[in-house]
Amino acid sequence: MGSPSRASGPDQPLSGARVLVTRSPERSLSLVAALEEAGASAVLLPLIDFERAADQHSLDVACDALGAGAFDWLVVTSATTVHVLLAKAQDRGVVLNQWIPAGTRIAAIGPATRGLLEANGLVVHLAPSGEQSAAGLLEVWPGGGRVLLPQADIAAPRLAEGLLAAGSNVTVVTAYRTVEYPASAERRLALPVEDGGPGQAPPSYSLLSPAAAAAGIADGSIHAVVAASPSAVRRIADLTPLHRCRLVVIGRSTAEQAAALGLPVAAVAAEPTPEGLVAAVEAALGHQPETT
Fold first, then answer.
1. What is the three-class DSSP state of 266?
2. Which domains does the chain have, with CATH numbers?
């Protein structure tokens, strides 16, 4: 099949494009809606899911120390971590902004992480000014202090090592596990469905199997695939070759993982937001030649 049509004008720059989103439906609605608004149709292939951390004791010990004011900084790198903290606060019969002491400063990576923290009444004191990544946070990190860093089990050591190098005393604890989709029902981390906003109808999408996604990539009916994390890229590699399908990623670490796997990256989103990803998809497909 040929490239998506560009005939519908600037209001729908992705008219005719079919974009593969590799997140679960409850975490994809805002991106699917933004793609739909730009004229694209989204197809979903959930590749990763989340489970509760295996070592709940260590997580609870760290959380109790957090509530007792043992840390100068709480560093939060994902919205998923915020949901874990919300659940831990609920277990303790309090709301998050009452549980975390006012004297504990909070650093956050990514607008979704920051937005969720602020929506729950917390002040974010530090965030990257440019790239929303571990490297971006380390560029603005003031150094020193006792730091709690709850993160995924497969998180790269770059952030913890950088904080230590800056003179901080860092406690790293696993907040959740990243697993292949779907997670086991008894261990799955419950995440709320994204809210598209008042009065906004849920966007439409198709849910594909890996075989169907690989076939769509091979026959050219899927024009772009979006990867939001290195773990998603590792699983996209199983669908290769990508043929003429364009790979669009979020962040330096995801792009580096793609390069390590020999996957060409067509565009890196300037911001890890639905709007930033749509712009990156548009840029990636804008360079795609028409087939004859």
1. strand
2. 18-47+204-286 (3.40.50.10090), 51-180 (3.40.50.10090)
